[in-house]
Amino acid sequence: MKILIRDVLLDGKRTNILTEGDRIAGIGGVNDRTDAVIDGRGKAAIPGLVNAHTHAAMSLMRGYADDLPLGEWLSNHIWPLEAKLTPDDVYWGTKLACLEMIKSGTTCFSDMYWHIESACRAVEDTGIRGFMSPVFIDQGDSGKAEEHMKENTRLAGKAGKKFGGRVKLALGPHAIYTVSEESLRWAKEHADKEKLLVHIHLSETEGEVEDCLKEKGVRPVEYLEKIGFLGPNVVCAHCVWLDQREMRILGKNNANAAYCPTSNMKLSVGSALDYDGLRREGVTVALGTDGCASNNNLDMFEAMKFASLLQKFHWKSQTALPAREALMMATEGGAKALGLKAGSIREGMLADIALINLKKPELTPNHSLASDLVYAANGSCVDSLICDGRVLMEKGRVEGEEKILEKAMEASKNLACRGNQA
Amino acid sequence: MKILIRDVLLDGKRTNILTEGDRIAGIGGVNDRTDAVIDGRGKAAIPGLVNAHTHAAMSLMRGYADDLPLGEWLSNHIWPLEAKLTPDDVYWGTKLACLEMIKSGTTCFSDMYWHIESACRAVEDTGIRGFMSPVFIDQGDSGKAEEHMKENTRLAGKAGKKFGGRVKLALGPHAIYTVSEESLRWAKEHADKEKLLVHIHLSETEGEVEDCLKEKGVRPVEYLEKIGFLGPNVVCAHCVWLDQREMRILGKNNANAAYCPTSNMKLSVGSALDYDGLRREGVTVALGTDGCASNNNLDMFEAMKFASLLQKFHWKSQTALPAREALMMATEGGAKALGLKAGSIREGMLADIALINLKKPELTPNHSLASDLVYAANGSCVDSLICDGRVLMEKGRVEGEEKILEKAMEASKNLACRGNQA
Question: What value does the mean pLDDT take over residues B213-219?
């Protein structure tokens, strides 16, 4: 499959982009014998956005229980509902999330959730790219730990390989306070052996740091370093409460951070990831939305704006995280953190491309595309989306979207009913 | 003109809404002899949103100079450009802003800007509702003050009355640090006499409070009270750095606050309006986007999300400014602050209505419409907009939008050229 995007704005210049198979085959030259041509006039091409931390199927719980204290929200609403989740729920919830991501310019996401094979199937079916981690929580229970290890070993084998190359299984040890040291060690060793990504929550709240200090005598990142957990295949979501030394350790170990500003604000975690600090230590910072129960959308354009504005506000600097860097965080940064040959539009890179419709009031007058995308746009500016060399959306239309909305609505209503009966 | 919105979701129930002239004529009953029928199926009706603080024509400077220190941004970029603004620039800039507001569900805004008659004409031509304040800055220069007084007197007379009822002239004394005490007193007296709204910036930065204490020996709100400036026709934009006593004074005087969370974060003003504190003192809090140079859009859905999340984050409370109250702030709150019989959909209210397209992934599964609108939606969820009993947008289309984009683009590029020549 060859696609030609003709006469499109790329890095401020009008040009053509050719894709072949799953790759970008060329910039500039026109190849007449393509299978499809997309008219790029009035549009700008940017790399597909990378959502480095979410729980996709939580789209089913969007708006289900907002504005509550964290403990009540989790214990009385979210966890009871999650206990009732079926593989079918997760399939339709993930499909709903994929649809939302496709429509708002995201070509790749890193997921952590239950019934992961159903989620993988949804990713496979919608055409997006996903790093899929089954939730690994043992709470120190060795029986549970063993189950998770078995399941992860199974998924690293045939069970996971049955999906196409876009769907990559990953390890999802939930957090240091929900997974035993032994299991964390196992997860990292298993991931290294199987060349898998590791996806973990890290230092989202101050309480987590205090507990770690009390129980382990060191801060969370120090603990993870001590047990040999850190490395370039590790993506740590949140990283809100790191001190200088912890940022240095992450940098030294080439570990990655996934910044989730919208979720951090909504759940009022009390501080913000220190982007300048992490950057100084050489840590790659990616951007994530978190799940729809704590955001409540998957719009990476909105996430870029929250990312920059939260840095400016919290760190009291009008120049913090400028637009260009926020855009890079959501593209190159995400791709680098996930170890993906994507995040920029160059020959040889994966053909993951979003086309922006520039004929919108909020993108006029267009003094700076980066500023406009980060501060003025939202996901609705995306006109067309190519992922892995396939057109997933053209002129705002995604095949089968009505059915996804219907089925996800049905799954969600049934789930809420079952939850209320509990 | 009679319009029937048939079979639409209103407050959770399917019903019909009838408008007649500029008013909502009835809910529920169907009148067959209407001039137009809008199919409300798959849509929810909400009151048109009220943007209580902006500088509309600054849309021309969107993305012109971001991520700079405040002083440099204003002195080297924004002010030089503003010095070159022509009435024609303001006309097209305001039209661009009105187009963006219409497309994102706003039916009324409160403006403060230069060349206000051009802005009024743009409001008149686009069909939206505007409270239009010419900027009043004298910097203690009595000659300048006199000019402004003359101009405002002229506008309160025939010059202002030539516009339709949707376009209301207002007073715009810029701030306590740019307008002399004498002029502030005059503005309030003039506004009271002519029954006009007064629109002022108040306590946006800590420096403003410190300077006021140094120069006047009291805090900004105390100063305004002392000179008899406060009252129910006064809307104070920002209100970031108020102490308890100042909030009490605003409440006692029935003055109104316009919260601008996105701008406050982008310009890193260092604190946030105290919504709970103001509410306790009975102050009506409206919501504003501020101008496009410091936001950089006019999307009130995005502003609602920033409003709630900034309260949650800054005041460290997961329950602060819940979705339902954020939505009320952007509708009822705005209407009340501006003294407008709008902000809710009831018989006799102004026919300012936004229809939300519910068939969108980010609005699925729709457990709570308020949560979805505030936390998940953006302005692109608006399908149709009625203002003053006229349909300004249907199915996402606004008449003449291409020409507005073109002319605003042209005006902005020319303005930037003139600015660079300076």
Answer: 98
Same domain? B228 vs B324: yes
Domain containing A307 — which CATH number?
Answer: 3.20.20.140
Q: Could you tell me if B382 and B334 lie in one domain?
A: no
Query: Which DSSP category does A317 fall into?
Result: -
What is residue B305's predicted lDDT score, i.e. its pLDDT? 98
Distance CA B53, CA B327 (A): 16
Single out the residue in A338, A367, A389 at which a domain terminates.
Answer: A338
CATH code for position A351: 2.30.40.10
Q: Is residue B414 part of a domain?
A: no
A103, part of any domain: yes
Cα B259 to Cα B292: distance, rounded to the nearest angstrom: 16
- For residue A249, the distance in angstroms to the closest alpha carbon of chain B comes to 28
Has the ipTM of the complex gone over 0.95?
yes
Owning domain of residue A237: 49-338
Beta bridge partners of B200: B236
Q: What is the mean pLDDT of each run of 10 residues along chain A (422 residues)?
A: 96 96 91 87 98 98 95 92 96 98 98 98 98 97 97 90 91 98 98 97 98 98 98 98 98 98 98 98 98 97 98 98 98 98 98 98 97 98 98 98 98 92 66
| pLDDT given at position A149 | 98
Element of type H or E holding A278: helix A275-280
- Residue B5 above 70 pLDDT? yes
If asked whether residues B277 and B228 sit together in one domain, one would say yes
Q: According to the 3-state scheme, what is the secondary structure of A49-70?
A: EEEEEECHHHHHHCCCCCCCCH
Same structural domain for residues B37 and B53?
Answer: no
- A309, A369, A383, A397: which to substitute to probe chain B, counting the most B Cβ within 10 Å? A309
Q: Which of B306, B323, B338 corresponds to the end of one domain?
A: B338
Whether the Cβ atoms of residue A351 and residue A19 lie closer than 8 Å to each other? yes
Ramachandran angles phi, psi of A94, nearest 5°: -70, -35
Q: Are residues B40 and B60 in the same domain?
A: no
Look at residue A419 in the predicted model and tell me its pLDDT: 83
Q: What is the DSSP letter of A333?
A: I
pLDDT at res. A33: 84
Mutation target among A126, A205, A301, A367 for the B interface, most CBs of B within 10 A:
A367
- Give contacts of B 10-29 with A, CB under 8 A: none
Are residues A256 and A364 both part of a single domain? Answer: no
**Structural domain count of chain B:** 2
Q: Mean of the pLDDT values across residues B52-64?
A: 98
- How would residue B31 be classed by pLDDT, with cut points 50, 70 and 90? low
Residues A331 and A351 in one domain: no
**Strands, E assignment, B207-261:** 234-238, 256-259
Annotate B114-180 with three-state secondary structure: CCHHHHHHHHHHHCCEEEEEEEECCCCCHHHHHHHHHHHHHHHCHHHHCCCCCEEECEEECCCCCCC
Task: Specify the pairing of strand B49-54 against strand B284-287.
Answer: unpaired
Q: Where is A139: in which H helix or E strand?
A: none
A207 and A172 in contact (C-beta within 8 Å)?
A: no
Residues A134 and A268 reside in one and the same domain: yes
Which residue has 């409460």 as its token pair?
Answer: A241
| pTM exceeds 0.95 for this model | yes
A345 min Cα distance to partner chain B (Å): 23
What gap in Å lies between CA A234 and CA A191, rounded to an integer?
A: 9
Contact criterion met (CB < 8 Å) for A265 and B309: yes
Q: Does residue A354 sit within a domain? A: yes
pLDDT band at B161 (very low <50, low <70, confident <90, very high): confident
From chain B, pick out residues whose CB is under 8 angstroms from the CB of A269: 313
Q: What percent of chain B has pLDDT over 90?
A: 94
- The per-residue pLDDT for range B323-342, each reduced to its tens digit, is 999 999 999 999 999 999 99
CA distance B69 to chain A (A): 5
